[in-house]
Write a structure and sequence with these properties.
alpha+beta, ubp-family deubiquitinating enzyme fold, four-stranded antiparallel β-sheet, two-stranded parallel ribbon, 12 strands, globular, Papain-like_cys_pep_sf
């Protein structure tokens, strides 16, 4: 719903100005992998987002604040053991994979993901 509002406001704004309304809302986030034992860092993806989707709950963990959800968004996961990262010339390596904001817009829009679906497509709500 928010994206429809942004699109309509953007269309109206473009008619009166050369500037885009998305410049007020657009952030850029890189997904990065960094090896622990060798000098290898790679940007896996560079995403431009109008709004950031934050989880309220992940598995059995419930986040009690936007700060906790945001920390989860940028926190990484360790790739090790059977889940090592193939670091090109270095082969399989233990690594950290995480997200980093490259640009933060003047207006950061956060969308809370208040429900998830389990393996059987049953909606699980969290208050």
């Amino acid at each position: 719903m928010f994206m429809k509002v942004v699109d309509r406001v953007n269309d109206a704004f473009k008619a009166k100005s050369d500037m885009s309304i998305t410049q007020m809302f657009q952030s850029r986030v890189h997904r990065i992998v960094k090896c622990l034992n060798v000098p290898f860092v790679k940007v896996l993806s560079a995403d431009e987002n109008i709004c950031i989707l934050l989880c309220v709950r992940m598995g059995n963990v419930t986040f009690n604040s936007v700060r906790e959800s945001m920390e989860n968004f940028v926190s990484g996961s360790r790739l090790e053991g059977d889940n090592c990262y193939n670091a090109e010339e270095f082969g399989l390596q233990a690594a950290d994979m995480f997200s980093r904001f490259v640009t933060v817009p003047p207006v950061l829009v956060l969308t809370l993901q208040r429900s998830t679906f389990d393996a059987y497509a049953v909606k699980l709500n969290d208050r």
